[in-house]
């Protein structure tokens, strides 16, 4: 067995291209997820029973259905329904964004509900208007609690972008797989991307763990 | 927007190919349960216990193993085991075997962290009491520490069963005959992607929902026993 490192270096541009697609899919999914997750969190916290039901059905569905099936569904069925050509990258990232929204909505809700009720009641009794109430009382406390699960989910999302390779998006995993097929050197390329993923994801894991400890101490 | 696809939903196709989808789903369930029992409970507990050993090297090996498997995507692990590992070992595994190995190792890494946290949640006095009563080490683990750890471990473990189930659909990239593969083959055979993928998604959702309900049931049961 010989490990040819020079093969990785000579094909590095392809891997970087793949990495770029991975990261941009992550960013697209995260943007959709934050906006939509915020909306669903608002609906779930609202007193309207229909809004509550709608958002809890959405969250349950997207949290329990395998992402792979949803991605394939989006890839084949969004173009049929919208009658427009949509690339694998966009349909995949949008579906991942929907899944992210379901998870983030729950994280947001858990963070907001973890604030002691007395804080919100106190802000009501002091008749603080809604914007300062959220800006100075609820959000600063909630965000602190949300950071570790948010970072954890972010790492999950980076891992989930590999699923886009199944619908032909040439992100990092697919690039390495194709390069391995071309050169018959799967070992080098697959080990290289495993290492790249580890280097990207592991610092976030450490950060969220550190933050969790700080939260516990407070 | 063209909603006619929904009004012209072809149920006949779904009925015709439902058995094929179910046989795919069965493979998913087998993968989920095997990897949870072997990887999650058995290897996970072993890793969790080994990671508390006082010998530095052993502990670090286990920690590096779990961190590495937690920080890389399952898809990469699966194709690594299927395509790259044979180069090192010279053993060619079938797709199903490689999928199962990747899943077992992945699940064991996740579960060992959960079980470790459960074991750490047992108060130290319990260990000391067991020691001062002169109990042999395996008796104190089996009779005293693990049963108490079980209570804190059950809710997150049932949560991992659902994520294992979701992860099994990823393994279709190795061309094992799971629900995803079945849906792909049927839809390229019948040219009815909307019907087939929608029914596959609903089937998978139903199984996932059953697992979630089962998890809630277990959680309630265990929290009742405590009180």
Polypeptide structure, described:
The complex is a heterodimer of chains A (218) and B (227). The mean pLDDT of chain A is 91. In chain A, helix 2 packs antiparallel against helix 3, helix 2 packs antiparallel against helix 8 and helix 7 packs antiparallel against helix 9 (186-217). Helix content of chain A is 83%, strand content 0%. Chain A is flat and about 70 Å long. Chain A has a single domain, classed as Orthogonal Bundle (MetI-like fold). Chain A has 218 residues and is mainly α. With 227 residues, chain B is mainly alpha-helical. Chain B has one domain (13-226): MetI-like (MetI-like fold, Orthogonal Bundle). Chain B has helices at 4-7, 11-50, 56-70, 74-89, 95-120, 124-132, 137-168, 179-190, 193-226. The radius of gyration of chain B is 22 Å and the shape is globular. The N and C termini of chain B lie far apart (55 Å). The chains are: A mainly alpha (218), B mainly alpha (227).
Which descriptors apply to this entry?
heterodimer, A: 218 residues, mainly alpha, MetI-like fold, 9 helices, B: 227 residues, globular
Class of chain A in CATH? Mainly Alpha
CATH superfamily of chain B: MetI-like
CATH structural architecture of chain B? Orthogonal Bundle
Q: What would CATH call the architecture of chain A?
A: Orthogonal Bundle
**What is the helix content of chain A?**
over 70%
Radius of gyration of chain A (CA) equals: 21 Å
Q: Identify the quaternary structure here.
A: heterodimer
Quick one: CATH superfamily of chain A? Answer: MetI-like
Strand residues, percent of chain B: under 5%
Helix amount of chain B: over 70%
How many separate helices of chain A?
Answer: 9
The main pleated sheet of chain B reads as: none
In the CATH scheme, what's the topology name of chain A?
Answer: MetI-like fold
